[in-house]
Amino acid sequence: MISFTDVLELSKTYRTIPLAKEVAKKKLSELNLSILKKSYSYLLLLESGEHGEEHGRFTYLSPSPFLIIQSKDQQIRLSGEEEVMRQLKEAGIDRLKDQPKKMIEMILKTYRSPKIPTLPYFTGGAIGYFSYEWVKRSERIETKHQRSSPFSEFHLAFIKELLVFDHEQERLLFIDNLIIDPNETKEKKEEKYRHTMKSLEEKAEYWRQFIAENSSPPIEISKEKEEIKPFQSSFTKEQFVEGVKRLKEAIRQGEIFQAVLSLKQSIKTDADAVLVYQILRKINPSPYMVYLQMADETIIGASPETLVKIVGDEIATYPIAGTRPRGKTPLEEKQLAEELQNDPKEIAEHVMLIDLARNDLGKVSQPGSVKVAKKMKIEKYSHVMHLVSKVIGKLKAETTSLDVLEATFPAGTVSGAPKVRAMELIAKLEREERGPYAGAVAAISFNGNLDTCITIRSIFFHQGTAYLQSGAGIVYDSIPEKEYEEVANKAKAMMKAIAIAEGQRE
Length: 506
Description:
Elements: H1 4-10, E1 16-24, H2 33-39, E2 42-47, E3 58-62, E4 67-72, E5 75-80, H3 82-90, H4 100-110, E6 125-130, E7 154-159, E8 161-166, E9 171-179, H5 186-213, E10 232-233, H6 237-252, E11 258-268, H7 273-283, E12 288-294, E13 297-303, E14 306-311, E15 314-317, E16 320-325, H8 330-341, H9 344-362, E17 371-380, E18 384-394, H10 401-408, E19 416-417, H11 419-430, E20 440-445, E21 450-454, E22 458-462, E23 465-474, H12 480-490, H13 492-504
Antiparallel strand pairs: 1-9, 2-3, 2-12, 3-8, 4-5, 4-7, 6-7, 6-20, 8-9, 10-11, 11-19, 11-23, 12-13, 13-22, 14-15, 14-21, 15-18, 16-18, 17-18, 20-21, 22-23
Helix pairs in contact: 6-12, 7-13
């Protein structure tokens, strides 16, 4: 427990100090999300289908942001609690709407908090998403004649109250952040501290009772109600195959080494988004499970792939390239893994992405600190296995979380190499903005830590329509028809989740 003496010392450097109270031994997965969904316009849940030190130790839930920043229809919208808006206006932050990166950085700096070793990596900050088109803020990319996405360019909710389940220690915490004005007297700081501690106790008790009264059993899936309806596609099979051929020609001409062509699909649906999420979590558990309800936009994700992480002063990214299905027997599993590790096409593509990751991290890391910590290891998920590497670096001084995100965004695994030219060719072929697909879901902590996943294997809901998108990495010896099969297969789990939810709705 942080004492008032600790607060006085910390307030010399930090404006925001996280305070925590244990709520219960209950898991957040036992909480009935549907009740929260009906009560709040924003509901932010980040969890994992895996639990380990590398991924998924903590599950985060918050239904109560104190500040929203959103870029949509070429306008930056800033809204929040009255006192917060007054403080931002006094600091001149509201005048930075033509510089969104700087605006976000200034908000994070205003509420900078310490890293408390006994608390989770994320103790308050921004949760939300960046669409693929965010890259145009930092790179000049020719993308004429593209149809606009109905989603935001970015949409971030800043939170200072959250529930966190620690899967290692099996405890549920409620975190609230004490916000101190550095010019306040000692007496005023003590008054705020005591008020926040009292509020912390009351809110922890509220959530203890709420969870006890609103738990839900694990979702049961009724497969006989599974009927996948036709989706509207951005490409016919013939058009996609032709696009692959054009990218192969660009590779042959030396313009690029690789590019990721994607297929967008959509369907009108009244499926309940929470139910779709719960089903997707059950049929396709992944390292990053995401449920972001953000006003009229909802993002549901089952992403296997980190974009970039910062913990302390270490930056890490995990290139994934190379896929095989899981084996039906131990022998088949072993054979498929060996086949994957010895496939020249998969290895060549993966090595390119390692080089790209090293180059990206090199922009924001201390000289000589970038290295490959893990190279082409097999990682197994519910339905597939992947080749995965880990590239790390030491954070350069005066480098922000947004600098690191910008340096690595978008991932090479969803764009190509060289990135800029690959993205230009992709834009010409896909003909419409990707929106959240191939961007990132982010948790940007006030304490400097960062965790982001690439927004793949995800479903995006907006005004009664569900959108999903999947891509294939095109290289010199790609077989166009097989690449189409790959994008179709990647979409199946998401389509299945929607179909089951439609069949099971009340």
